[in-house]
Amino acid sequence: IISLRPQPIYIMSSKTVKKSGKKSIQKFTIDCSQPVDDNVLDAASFEKFLHDRIKVNGKAGNLGTKVTITRDRTKIMVAAEAPFSKRYLKYLSKKYLKKQQLRDFLHVVASSKAAYELRYFKVSGDNGEEES
Fold first, then answer.
1. What is the mean pLDDT of the chain?
2. Does residue 45 surpass a pLDDT of 50?
């Protein structure tokens, strides 16, 4: 018996992947100076929260060498290798504020391309209050 079915033709792909020795590192800053100066927020606990919650390769708390978190008195600096989102830092910052029940008073605002800032909501007082 002779098969009339044509034989499949396999085409090999000739893609080559180049690995560069130098990874691009993104640096982000979260400025918490207003709430820290008013003793509303503790920068050390915020840094620990970020350290415990940032996911690398789907695992939280396993930063390794891909992500480094440093803090001076009121600023938290995050340096990460290329696939890292600034928006993810905003998400985690809002999650921390909610956990500390500060979400009603503070919000996360982008102050520059690579920086966020925690600010108080602006409350406009009524000028038409009655005095007695």
1. 84
2. yes
